[in-house]
Description:
Layout: H1 10-40, H2 43-61, H3 67-91, H4 93-98, H5 114-135, H6 138-159, H7 166-170, H8 172-186, H9 191-214, H10 216-222, H11 227-231, H12 233-257, H13 262-284, H14 288-318
Helix pairs in contact: 2-3, 2-8, 2-14, 3-5, 3-6, 3-8, 5-6, 6-8, 8-9, 9-10, 9-12, 9-14, 12-13, 13-14
Amino acid sequence: MPSPPPEIPATAAVAAGSVSAGRVPALTSMLHTAGAYFRLTKPRVIELLLVTTVPAMILAAGRFPSVWLILSVLLGGALAAGGANTMNCWIERDRDQVMRRTHGRPLPMGEIEPVRALVFGITLEVLAFAWLWATVNLLSAALAVSAMLFYVFVYTIWLKPRSPQNIVIGGAAGAVPVLVGWAAVTGRLGAPAWVLFAIIFCWTPPHFWALSVKYRDDYARAGIPMLPVVRGTRAAARQIVAYSLVVVAITLALVAVGSMGWVYLVAAVALGALFVWQAVRLERDASAERALKLFVFSNTYLALLFAAIAVDTLVHARI
């Protein structure tokens, strides 16, 4: 008859259980910290920037570029945008603390030490430049880092706390990814690339002013002179209508400059009409609810417009 297995001493069992139990909180803490660093990069903003990059590459190439080139540009662009957003969070951590919309970010919540956040942001920028230079070209790398410098020093530090026109000029940083994508394919910047840049540049004020109408009290509490705070929601709504009309005009200009076809033309007209209509509705009812609807639609508008650019180009490539 086999002998029973030896008993494990109680002290050893307790020790093993303690080690196992200790690993769970440690792993949870590591995952939480990693998640906090990830949130510093503002991934939803990065997603919108990258949505405009690939169609610009397709238009520049006149076809679908190599998958490797697309992935290289997207990775480099994500690193550059993430670094810029991280440094923005580092600079604005005190203002974020007093705004309901942003007080839950990692730095105001004390999830990450400020100096570590700054080092993280700078590291991402260095990696972005090195990666784009090594795998794409120097022009794309320089453009990506220039967007960060503009966003951090011109917009975040200089314009945002001083001028109600902050987002008008500062929006240039968010328009650079299309230039990065174009330069990645062609090695230079052509006229269609600048029209794409102008679309995003002029789209940014109505997009962001709609958000600042929704959170007007937040910006006022933080002392940030956004247009709805300084001149009121009605004045901001009128400016939104004006800029939405300019955006539509520029999107139609791309038909001639970029040799776009009927797919893009129909999409630009239809989406443009909806964009202007949403802006006019906000002018008539400058409420926080209406402003949020315009903000959400503006994201959809830009994504669908650039999707139409890609589809139109690929349709023409097959003909």
